[in-house]
Specification:
By secondary structure, the chain is an alpha/beta fold. The chain is built from 15 helices and 17 strands. Helix 7 links the parallel strand 11 and strand 12. Bound molecules: zinc ion (ZN). The site of zinc ion has 8 residues, from helix 12 and helix 14.
Length: 371
């Protein structure tokens, strides 16, 4: 049997569940740390595991260029290479390729593009993207799609969505079903309700183990994103996991879970960790700020990560001021821990039927100053 998902409880549209995969079970709602090039930047696999993360994301575009999908396969696959025995979801490469403006040429069958590294020519089609993800040994494979540009007219969005739906069929044909592995289709259609509904119908007709919502968090703003989710998330098949791609801030996660989304990924906590931005239970802080220079307290008193249990805010501030690499390492660890703790709190609240009150309390605490 391919990958499956069990639904345990609901609180409004929010859902508590478990994803069953060949590489272990994952409680949902879940946030996936991003391991773009075969590493969650600045983190060892052990440190990622210690945060409670169960599922991580790998990147087809980056890995096909370096070290190459066939090379990853010959080295035993991405799990072995990264020392990550848990499940891995890989994106299809579509999003990165489409953003190579001026370096790519789109046709009905795929995309020809130049590497951003050395200018060498490559081609991605639905078949090749699925083959690469298979070579990487991805637990969850994503269908190859075109991420519709934003803003776009309704006609442009329709044409792009229809191309993605043809590619979804080809992606499904290329997928090799294996025990505990699965493939997700990606809903497109921009901010147009009828196009989103057409896309959901087309994907449901093909049939996938899960469904992703693509083309959001591309500049439309949180309000527009939430209104798309209002009519998209709960319209997806109820017995399959729903994944909102590339989202988001802690506030985005609270709002999207409440609208029926089960899975998320975003570079935000790791990227922020390298640029001195700390996500905490009392809001976001720039650790370069001089007000932390003499602050002997922990970054987030309730957090169990090594930064919060062993070091002061003043030390973290000092590390960033001196551009020591330990600063990004410790803060990335903390930010991932914060996101995992946020999701654990959300799951507990859904199970107890108090997500709205829990989310309100979490949001209220963000506006507080660090204690
Ligand atoms: Zn911490």
């Amino acid at each position: 049997m391919t990958l499956s998902w069990t639904h345990h409880a609901s609180d409004g549209a929010a859902r508590l569940g478990t994803l069953h995969t060949a590489h272990g079970d994952v409680p949902t709602p879940v946030f996936m740390p991003v391991g773009t090039a075969g590493t969650v930047k600045a983190m060892t696999a052990d440190s990622v595991r210690s945060t409670g993360a169960k599922l991580i994301l790998g990147n087809t575009y980056h890995l096909m260029l370096r070290p190459g999908a066939e090379r990853v396969a010959s080295l035993g696959g991405l799990h072995k290479m990264m020392d990550w025995a848990g499940p891995i979801l890989t994106d299809s490469g579509g999003f990165q390729v489409m953003s190579l403006t001026g370096l790519r040429k789109l046709d009905a069958d795929g995309v020809t593009f130049q590497s951003h590294i050395d200018g060498s020519k490559h081609r991605l089609t639905p078949q090749r993207s699925i083959e690469i993800q298979h070579l990487l040994d991805a637990t969850i494979t994503m269908a190859f799609d075109e991420c519709t540009k934003f803003p776009a007219t309704e006609a442009e969005t329709r044409a792009s969505m229809e191309l993605s739906m043809r590619w979804a069929g080809r992606s499904r044909d290329a997928f090799v079903a294996r025990e505990g592995y699965g493939q997700f289709g990606i809903v497109q259609g921009g901010v147009f309700r009828d196009l989103r509904e057409n896309s959901i119908a087309a994907l449901s007709n093909i049939g996938f183990e899960g469904y992703a919502i693509g083309g959001l968090a591309v500049g439309e703003g949180q309000e527009a994103m939430f209104s798309v989710l209002d009519y998209t998330a709960t319209a997806l098949p109820a017995d399959r996991p729903r994944y909102l791609m590339g989202v988001g801030t802690p506030d985005d996660l609270l709002g999207s879970v409440a609208r029926g989304v089960d899975m998320f990924d975003c570079v935000m906590p790791t990227r922020a960790g390298r640029t001195a931005r700390a996500y905490t239970s009392h809001g976001v802080h720039n650790m370069r700020n001089a007000r932390f220079a003499d602050d002997a307290g922990p970054l987030d008193p309730g957090c169990a990560c090594p930064l919060c249990t062993r070091h002061s805010r003043a030390y973290l501030h000092h590390l960033f001021r001196c551009e020591e690499m330990l600063g990004p390492m410790l803060l990335t660890w903390h930010n991932i821990q914060y996101y995992q703790d946020l999701m654990a709190g959300i799951r507990q609240a859904i199970g107890e039927g108090r997500l709205a009150a829990h989310s309100a309390a979490v949001r209220a605490a963000w506006s507080g100053e660090p204690k």
